[in-house]
C-alpha cells in the first residue's frame, strides 16, 4: 500500500497500523478508505474527490472515486 498527496503522512499511520500480509481485497480497500478519512480529517489541504487504485504486477485498476465527505459520513455512522 502507498499514499500520495499532502495528507500521506497521516494515511501511512493508519495503513501501517492496520496492514497485515493476508488482508482480503475488501479488507485492504477498507483500510485504504480509513486511511483517506483520517488523512483528510487531519490535513487541511486534503479533501474533495479522491481516487483509490489497486496496483497489480501487470498494471493498476481504478477501484473508486469518492467524495471524502461521503466517506467521513459512512465511517462516522459505522462507529456509532
UniProtKB/TrEMBL annotation:
Q: Which UniProt keywords apply?
A: Cytoplasm, Differentiation, Hydrolase, Immunity, Nucleus, Protease, Proteasome, Threonine protease, Zymogen
Q: What is this protein called?
A: Proteasome subunit beta type-8
Q: Which gene encodes it?
A: LOC111747494
GO biological process entries: cell differentiation; immune system process; proteolysis involved in protein catabolic process
Chief site of localization:
nucleus
- Recall the GO molecular function terms of this protein's record: threonine-type endopeptidase activity
What is this enzyme's EC? 3.4.25.1
Catalysed reaction equations from the record: Cleavage of peptide bonds with very broad specificity
Q: Which InterPro entries match?
A: Ntn_hydrolases_N (IPR029055), Pept_T1A_subB (IPR000243), Proteasome_sua/b (IPR001353), Proteasome_suB-type (IPR023333)
Q: Which organism is it from?
A: Pteropus vampyrus (Large flying fox)
Question: So which domain of life are we looking at?
Answer: Eukaryota
